[in-house]
Amino acid sequence: MNMSDKKKEHPKVKSSLHARNRHRQRYDFKALTESSPDLAAFVKPNNYGDESIDFFNPEAVKALNKALLKHHYGVDHWDIPESYLCPPIPGRADYLHHIADLLAQSNGGNLLIGEHIKCLDVGVGANCIYPIIGNVEYGWRFVGSDIDPVAIKSARKIVEANPLISEEIELRLQSNPRFIFEGVLKPGEQVDLAICNPPFHSSKAEAQAGTVRKLRNLKHKKDVKPVLNFGGNNNELWCEGGEQKFVKDMIFESRRFSNSCFWFSSLISKEANLKSVYKTLKKVGAISVKTIPMGQGNKVSRIVAWTFLTPAQQKEWKTRRWNKKPME
Protein backbone atom coordinates (compact mmCIF):
# COMPACT_ATOMS: atom_id res chain seq x y z
CA MET A 1 0.00 0.00 0.00
CA ASN A 2 1.50 3.37 -0.97
CA MET A 3 1.18 6.59 0.98
CA SER A 4 -1.71 7.92 -1.10
CA ASP A 5 -3.69 4.73 -0.49
CA LYS A 6 -3.07 5.04 3.25
CA LYS A 7 -4.24 8.62 3.24
CA LYS A 8 -7.49 7.70 1.50
CA GLU A 9 -8.23 5.15 4.19
CA HIS A 10 -7.45 7.52 7.06
CA PRO A 11 -10.75 8.59 8.70
CA LYS A 12 -11.53 12.29 8.62
CA VAL A 13 -14.43 12.13 11.07
CA LYS A 14 -14.49 10.25 14.38
CA SER A 15 -18.05 9.05 13.84
CA SER A 16 -18.14 7.16 17.13
CA LEU A 17 -18.01 10.41 19.09
CA HIS A 18 -21.16 12.28 20.12
CA ALA A 19 -22.70 14.51 17.46
CA ARG A 20 -22.12 17.65 19.57
CA ASN A 21 -18.50 16.75 20.35
CA ARG A 22 -16.20 19.48 19.00
CA HIS A 23 -13.52 16.85 18.35
CA ARG A 24 -15.30 14.67 15.80
CA GLN A 25 -13.10 16.10 13.05
CA ARG A 26 -9.39 15.32 12.96
CA TYR A 27 -7.28 17.82 14.83
CA ASP A 28 -6.66 21.01 12.86
CA PHE A 29 -3.03 21.47 13.79
CA LYS A 30 -2.70 24.66 11.78
CA ALA A 31 -5.44 26.32 13.83
CA LEU A 32 -4.22 24.78 17.07
CA THR A 33 -0.64 25.99 16.62
CA GLU A 34 -1.92 29.45 15.77
CA SER A 35 -3.74 29.48 19.11
CA SER A 36 -0.85 27.84 20.97
CA PRO A 37 2.51 28.34 19.23
CA ASP A 38 4.27 26.05 21.76
CA LEU A 39 2.51 23.08 20.18
CA ALA A 40 4.35 23.59 16.87
CA ALA A 41 7.55 22.00 18.22
CA PHE A 42 5.74 18.66 18.56
CA VAL A 43 3.87 18.62 15.23
CA LYS A 44 5.21 16.52 12.36
CA PRO A 45 3.83 14.35 9.50
CA ASN A 46 2.50 10.93 10.52
CA ASN A 47 2.38 7.73 8.47
CA TYR A 48 -0.51 9.12 6.45
CA GLY A 49 1.36 12.29 5.55
CA ASP A 50 -0.89 14.36 7.81
CA GLU A 51 0.25 16.66 10.59
CA SER A 52 0.12 15.01 14.00
CA ILE A 53 2.07 14.56 17.23
CA ASP A 54 3.79 11.63 18.90
CA PHE A 55 1.08 10.41 21.26
CA PHE A 56 3.70 8.38 23.14
CA ASN A 57 5.40 11.61 24.20
CA PRO A 58 3.84 12.98 27.43
CA GLU A 59 5.06 16.51 26.72
CA ALA A 60 3.47 16.44 23.26
CA VAL A 61 0.17 15.23 24.70
CA LYS A 62 0.25 17.96 27.32
CA ALA A 63 0.96 20.62 24.69
CA LEU A 64 -1.94 19.30 22.60
CA ASN A 65 -4.32 19.49 25.57
CA LYS A 66 -3.27 23.07 26.27
CA ALA A 67 -3.94 23.97 22.66
CA LEU A 68 -7.33 22.20 22.56
CA LEU A 69 -8.50 23.87 25.75
CA LYS A 70 -7.41 27.29 24.56
CA HIS A 71 -8.71 26.97 20.99
CA HIS A 72 -12.05 25.26 21.67
CA TYR A 73 -12.93 26.25 25.23
CA GLY A 74 -11.26 29.62 25.79
CA VAL A 75 -9.05 28.39 28.64
CA ASP A 76 -5.84 30.37 28.36
CA HIS A 77 -4.02 28.98 31.40
CA TRP A 78 -3.89 25.25 32.01
CA ASP A 79 -1.17 23.03 33.43
CA ILE A 80 -0.79 19.97 35.65
CA PRO A 81 1.94 18.77 38.03
CA GLU A 82 4.47 16.28 36.74
CA SER A 83 3.22 12.65 36.66
CA TYR A 84 -0.45 13.63 36.97
CA LEU A 85 -3.07 12.46 34.48
CA CYS A 86 -3.23 14.34 31.20
CA PRO A 87 -6.54 13.00 29.85
CA PRO A 88 -7.65 12.67 26.22
CA ILE A 89 -10.10 15.53 25.86
CA PRO A 90 -12.43 14.08 23.17
CA GLY A 91 -13.44 11.20 25.43
CA ARG A 92 -13.99 13.48 28.42
CA ALA A 93 -16.20 15.72 26.31
CA ASP A 94 -18.20 12.70 25.14
CA TYR A 95 -19.16 11.75 28.71
CA LEU A 96 -20.56 15.24 29.29
CA HIS A 97 -22.53 15.34 26.04
CA HIS A 98 -24.07 11.95 26.73
CA ILE A 99 -24.95 12.85 30.31
CA ALA A 100 -26.48 16.11 29.04
CA ASP A 101 -28.70 13.98 26.80
CA LEU A 102 -29.72 11.85 29.78
CA LEU A 103 -30.68 14.97 31.70
CA ALA A 104 -32.63 16.17 28.66
CA GLN A 105 -34.56 12.89 28.56
CA SER A 106 -35.76 13.70 32.07
CA ASN A 107 -36.81 17.14 30.84
CA GLY A 108 -39.06 16.30 27.91
CA GLY A 109 -36.16 16.07 25.49
CA ASN A 110 -34.98 19.65 26.09
CA LEU A 111 -31.33 20.28 26.94
CA LEU A 112 -30.81 21.97 30.26
CA ILE A 113 -28.37 24.83 29.94
CA GLY A 114 -27.32 27.36 32.53
CA GLU A 115 -25.92 27.87 35.99
CA HIS A 116 -29.06 26.59 37.71
CA ILE A 117 -27.80 23.09 36.82
CA LYS A 118 -25.19 21.82 39.25
CA CYS A 119 -22.88 18.84 38.69
CA LEU A 120 -20.57 16.99 41.07
CA ASP A 121 -17.37 15.60 39.54
CA VAL A 122 -16.14 12.79 41.78
CA GLY A 123 -12.36 12.64 41.42
CA VAL A 124 -11.86 15.90 39.56
CA GLY A 125 -8.09 15.35 39.35
CA ALA A 126 -5.36 17.91 38.88
CA ASN A 127 -6.54 18.57 35.30
CA CYS A 128 -10.12 19.74 36.07
CA ILE A 129 -11.16 18.74 32.54
CA TYR A 130 -14.77 17.69 33.15
CA PRO A 131 -15.80 20.92 34.93
CA ILE A 132 -14.08 23.04 32.29
CA ILE A 133 -15.84 21.40 29.38
CA GLY A 134 -19.18 21.07 31.16
CA ASN A 135 -19.22 24.72 32.13
CA VAL A 136 -18.17 26.03 28.73
CA GLU A 137 -20.51 23.75 26.77
CA TYR A 138 -23.59 23.90 28.97
CA GLY A 139 -23.07 26.69 31.49
CA TRP A 140 -23.41 24.25 34.40
CA ARG A 141 -21.88 25.00 37.78
CA PHE A 142 -19.54 22.35 39.14
CA VAL A 143 -18.25 20.99 42.40
CA GLY A 144 -15.07 18.99 41.91
CA SER A 145 -13.93 16.66 44.68
CA ASP A 146 -10.72 14.70 45.20
CA ILE A 147 -8.84 12.93 47.98
CA ASP A 148 -5.51 14.34 46.79
CA PRO A 149 -4.58 17.82 48.13
CA VAL A 150 -2.10 18.31 45.27
CA ALA A 151 -4.84 17.62 42.70
CA ILE A 152 -7.22 20.05 44.39
CA LYS A 153 -4.52 22.72 44.56
CA SER A 154 -3.74 22.25 40.85
CA ALA A 155 -7.39 22.31 39.80
CA ARG A 156 -8.03 25.42 41.90
CA LYS A 157 -5.03 27.13 40.31
CA ILE A 158 -6.46 26.42 36.84
CA VAL A 159 -9.89 27.76 37.80
CA GLU A 160 -8.56 30.91 39.44
CA ALA A 161 -6.31 31.67 36.46
CA ASN A 162 -9.22 31.69 33.99
CA PRO A 163 -11.89 34.37 34.59
CA LEU A 164 -14.27 32.56 32.23
CA ILE A 165 -14.74 29.72 34.74
CA SER A 166 -13.45 31.18 38.01
CA GLU A 167 -16.90 31.75 39.52
CA GLU A 168 -18.48 28.56 38.19
CA ILE A 169 -16.28 25.76 39.59
CA GLU A 170 -15.73 24.98 43.26
CA LEU A 171 -13.07 22.51 44.44
CA ARG A 172 -13.50 20.48 47.63
CA LEU A 173 -11.02 18.15 49.29
CA GLN A 174 -12.38 14.79 50.41
CA SER A 175 -10.48 14.44 53.66
CA ASN A 176 -11.69 10.89 54.34
CA PRO A 177 -10.84 8.51 51.47
CA ARG A 178 -13.35 5.96 52.78
CA PHE A 179 -16.18 8.21 51.59
CA ILE A 180 -17.23 9.61 48.23
CA PHE A 181 -20.19 11.89 48.96
CA GLU A 182 -19.99 12.18 52.76
CA GLY A 183 -17.94 15.25 53.65
CA VAL A 184 -18.20 16.66 50.12
CA LEU A 185 -21.89 17.38 49.70
CA LYS A 186 -23.03 19.85 52.32
CA PRO A 187 -26.14 19.20 54.46
CA GLY A 188 -29.20 19.93 52.34
CA GLU A 189 -27.14 20.53 49.19
CA GLN A 190 -28.52 19.11 45.95
CA VAL A 191 -26.86 18.46 42.60
CA ASP A 192 -28.59 17.51 39.37
CA LEU A 193 -25.79 15.22 38.21
CA ALA A 194 -22.88 13.30 39.65
CA ILE A 195 -20.20 12.11 37.25
CA CYS A 196 -17.19 9.90 37.90
CA ASN A 197 -14.28 8.42 35.98
CA PRO A 198 -13.16 5.83 38.55
CA PRO A 199 -9.65 4.41 38.94
CA PHE A 200 -9.40 1.67 36.34
CA HIS A 201 -6.81 -0.69 37.84
CA SER A 202 -6.45 -2.43 41.20
CA SER A 203 -2.69 -1.85 41.56
CA LYS A 204 0.29 -0.01 40.08
CA ALA A 205 1.61 -3.30 38.67
CA GLU A 206 -1.69 -3.92 36.88
CA ALA A 207 -1.68 -0.40 35.46
CA GLN A 208 1.88 -0.80 34.17
CA ALA A 209 1.10 -4.23 32.69
CA GLY A 210 -1.86 -2.76 30.84
CA THR A 211 0.30 0.02 29.47
CA VAL A 212 2.93 -2.44 28.28
CA ARG A 213 0.27 -4.46 26.44
CA LYS A 214 -1.04 -1.33 24.78
CA LEU A 215 2.39 -0.18 23.70
CA ARG A 216 3.30 -3.61 22.36
CA ASN A 217 0.13 -3.71 20.29
CA LEU A 218 0.66 -0.23 18.92
CA LYS A 219 4.41 -0.35 18.41
CA HIS A 220 4.70 -4.07 17.68
CA LYS A 221 7.75 -4.33 19.95
CA LYS A 222 8.52 -6.89 22.61
CA ASP A 223 10.69 -4.66 24.80
CA VAL A 224 8.89 -1.53 25.89
CA LYS A 225 9.00 0.49 29.07
CA PRO A 226 5.75 1.07 30.98
CA VAL A 227 5.62 4.83 30.44
CA LEU A 228 2.12 6.26 30.76
CA ASN A 229 1.83 8.74 27.91
CA PHE A 230 -1.17 10.33 29.60
CA GLY A 231 0.45 10.21 33.03
CA GLY A 232 -1.50 9.37 36.14
CA ASN A 233 -0.70 8.42 39.73
CA ASN A 234 -2.18 5.98 42.20
CA ASN A 235 -5.26 8.08 43.01
CA GLU A 236 -6.11 8.49 39.34
CA LEU A 237 -5.30 5.12 37.76
CA TRP A 238 -5.59 2.49 40.46
CA CYS A 239 -7.10 1.81 43.86
CA GLU A 240 -7.73 -1.25 46.01
CA GLY A 241 -10.22 -3.43 44.14
CA GLY A 242 -10.02 -1.29 41.01
CA GLU A 243 -13.00 0.02 39.08
CA GLN A 244 -15.40 -2.68 40.27
CA LYS A 245 -14.98 -2.03 44.00
CA PHE A 246 -14.88 1.74 43.60
CA VAL A 247 -18.17 1.86 41.71
CA LYS A 248 -19.84 -0.62 44.09
CA ASP A 249 -18.80 1.54 47.04
CA MET A 250 -20.08 4.61 45.20
CA ILE A 251 -23.45 2.96 44.58
CA PHE A 252 -23.88 1.84 48.20
CA GLU A 253 -23.03 5.31 49.49
CA SER A 254 -25.25 7.02 46.92
CA ARG A 255 -28.26 5.36 48.54
CA ARG A 256 -27.73 7.52 51.63
CA PHE A 257 -27.76 10.59 49.38
CA SER A 258 -30.79 9.51 47.36
CA ASN A 259 -32.49 12.91 47.68
CA SER A 260 -29.29 14.89 47.05
CA CYS A 261 -28.82 14.04 43.37
CA PHE A 262 -31.15 13.45 40.43
CA TRP A 263 -28.81 11.27 38.34
CA PHE A 264 -25.74 9.54 39.74
CA SER A 265 -23.38 8.17 37.09
CA SER A 266 -20.03 6.55 36.51
CA LEU A 267 -17.93 5.55 33.57
CA ILE A 268 -17.56 1.75 33.36
CA SER A 269 -14.54 0.82 31.25
CA LYS A 270 -14.60 -2.94 31.79
CA GLU A 271 -17.66 -4.67 30.37
CA ALA A 272 -17.05 -7.56 32.78
CA ASN A 273 -17.87 -5.22 35.67
CA LEU A 274 -21.41 -4.50 34.47
CA LYS A 275 -22.94 -7.61 36.01
CA SER A 276 -21.66 -6.64 39.46
CA VAL A 277 -22.78 -3.03 38.98
CA TYR A 278 -26.32 -4.01 37.99
CA LYS A 279 -26.55 -6.46 40.88
CA THR A 280 -25.49 -3.75 43.34
CA LEU A 281 -27.95 -1.23 41.90
CA LYS A 282 -30.76 -3.73 42.28
CA LYS A 283 -29.69 -4.44 45.86
CA VAL A 284 -29.82 -0.77 46.86
CA GLY A 285 -33.19 -0.25 45.18
CA ALA A 286 -32.37 2.17 42.38
CA ILE A 287 -35.62 3.34 40.76
CA SER A 288 -34.18 3.68 37.27
CA VAL A 289 -30.88 2.55 35.70
CA LYS A 290 -29.57 3.68 32.31
CA THR A 291 -26.61 2.34 30.35
CA ILE A 292 -25.18 4.69 27.72
CA PRO A 293 -22.68 3.21 25.23
CA MET A 294 -19.68 5.30 24.25
CA GLY A 295 -17.21 4.61 21.47
CA GLN A 296 -13.82 6.26 21.06
CA GLY A 297 -11.82 4.77 18.22
CA ASN A 298 -11.16 1.11 18.97
CA LYS A 299 -12.15 1.54 22.61
CA VAL A 300 -15.70 0.82 23.72
CA SER A 301 -16.89 2.09 27.06
CA ARG A 302 -20.17 3.03 28.69
CA ILE A 303 -21.79 5.23 31.32
CA VAL A 304 -24.06 3.67 33.91
CA ALA A 305 -26.47 6.14 35.51
CA TRP A 306 -29.01 5.62 38.27
CA THR A 307 -31.57 7.54 40.29
CA PHE A 308 -33.49 6.85 43.50
CA LEU A 309 -36.15 9.46 42.78
CA THR A 310 -39.68 8.21 42.15
CA PRO A 311 -41.65 9.71 39.24
CA ALA A 312 -43.43 12.01 41.70
CA GLN A 313 -40.13 13.12 43.22
CA GLN A 314 -38.64 13.69 39.78
CA LYS A 315 -41.59 15.89 38.84
CA GLU A 316 -41.20 17.92 42.02
CA TRP A 317 -37.43 18.25 41.40
CA LYS A 318 -37.98 19.52 37.84
CA THR A 319 -40.59 22.06 38.95
CA ARG A 320 -38.46 23.36 41.78
CA ARG A 321 -35.01 23.39 40.15
CA TRP A 322 -35.32 23.29 36.37
CA ASN A 323 -38.37 25.34 35.52
CA LYS A 324 -37.03 28.52 37.06
CA LYS A 325 -34.90 29.39 34.03
CA PRO A 326 -35.42 29.39 30.27
CA MET A 327 -34.41 26.07 28.72
CA GLU A 328 -32.82 25.42 25.38
From TrEMBL:
<keyword id="KW-0949">S-adenosyl-L-methionine</keyword>
<keyword id="KW-0963">Cytoplasm</keyword>
<keyword id="KW-0489">Methyltransferase</keyword>
<keyword id="KW-0808">Transferase</keyword>
<protein>
    <recommendedName>
        <fullName>Ribosomal RNA large subunit methyltransferase F</fullName>
        <ecNumber>2.1.1.181</ecNumber>
    </recommendedName>
</protein>
<comment type="function">
    <text>Specifically methylates the adenine in position 1618 of 23S rRNA.</text>
</comment>
<dbReference type="GO" id="GO:0003676">
    <property type="term" value="F:nucleic acid binding"/>
</dbReference>
<dbReference type="GO" id="GO:0005737">
    <property type="term" value="C:cytoplasm"/>
</dbReference>
<feature type="compositionally biased region" description="Basic residues">
    <location>
        <begin position="9"/>
        <end position="20"/>
    </location>
</feature>
<dbReference type="InterPro" id="IPR010286">
    <property type="entry name" value="METTL16/RlmF"/>
</dbReference>
<dbReference type="GO" id="GO:0070475">
    <property type="term" value="P:rRNA base methylation"/>
</dbReference>
<dbReference type="Pfam" id="PF05971">
    <property type="entry name" value="Methyltransf_10"/>
</dbReference>
<feature type="region of interest" description="Disordered">
    <location>
        <begin position="1"/>
        <end position="20"/>
    </location>
</feature>
<dbReference type="InterPro" id="IPR002052">
    <property type="entry name" value="DNA_methylase_N6_adenine_CS"/>
</dbReference>
<comment type="similarity">
    <text>Belongs to the methyltransferase superfamily. METTL16/RlmF family.</text>
</comment>
<keyword id="KW-0698">rRNA processing</keyword>
<dbReference type="InterPro" id="IPR029063">
    <property type="entry name" value="SAM-dependent_MTases_sf"/>
</dbReference>
<dbReference type="GO" id="GO:0052907">
    <property type="term" value="F:23S rRNA (adenine(1618)-N(6))-methyltransferase activity"/>
</dbReference>
<dbReference type="InterPro" id="IPR016909">
    <property type="entry name" value="rRNA_lsu_MeTfrase_F"/>
</dbReference>
